[in-house]
Amino acid sequence: MPSQLAVDDISVAFGGHRALDSVALNAERGQVTGLIGPNGAGKSTLFDVISGLRKPLSGNVSLNGRDVTRAGPARRARHGLARTFQRLELFGRLSVRDNLRVAAELGPERRHAGHIADEILARLGIEHLADTTADSLSTGMGRLVEVARALAVRPSLILLDEPAAGQDVQETELFAGLLRTLAADGTAVLLVEHDMELVMSVCDTVYVLDLGRIIAAGPPGVIRRDETVLAAYLGKS
Ligand SMILES: Nc1ncnc2c1ncn2[C@@H]1O[C@H](COP(=O)(O)OP(=O)(O)OP(=O)(O)O)[C@@H](O)[C@H]1O
């Protein structure tokens, strides 16, 4: 079976600066894949390429074996890709439930949008927030609701950009459980996150990006002890 996401030989340049240099990466169904790296390593740029917001200089992106390199964001979404952003993108004046409902109306089961919204609220254990307006949520809960909203389109691949930023310890624990549940349900999860404890505890595979290149990839136990990875981080902190 092909990988849910296969990225091959992706390069991106901003002026003369190579933000990504021949990057290759895979994300599989049923797994949480981590993408880590120091600030400016190219993580968000790679997410932009995967979601179709930025055209690469070279390389290919495939979703479930289908080459989508030339497809725009909407077509990729129809092929099962969903994404969250570093900044919150919720509709502030709408309730949490309505934020989910509006998203579900863009997905394949739009006629059941209300039902999908309720089901996801229950699955995440946040039914009590259904009628809360999005702009009165804490940042941490706002991030959880962002993920809930991404789930409303029934994605087979979900890209999460720093979802735990601003979460307290309890919210992060809840979140780690959610990521494992998503993977167990068969979703491929690709996670960019600076919280190393979270990354090392939930990921099956971790890729390390530094200055636009993948410098290591493997299970968390191996990455944690990798000399090149330690040098990349220590050199910049
Ligand atoms: N629109 C742009 N124009 C010019 N340079 C850019 C642009 N976007 C990103 N860059 C540069 O590309 C490199 C990669 O940036 P990117 O935001 O992808 O890194 P990142 O790993 O996501 O960083 P962070 O962890 O801080 O979010 C950086 O050197 C950045 O300055």
From TrEMBL:
EC assignment: 3.6.3.-
GO CC terms of this entry: plasma membrane
Domain ABC transporter as annotated: residue spans: 5-236
Record keywords: ATP-binding, Hydrolase, Nucleotide-binding, Transport
Record flagged with keyword Hydrolase: yes
PANTHER family recorded: CONSERVED COMPONENT OF ABC TRANSPORTER FOR NATURAL AMINO ACIDS-RELATED (PTHR45772)
Protein name: ABC transporter ATP-binding protein
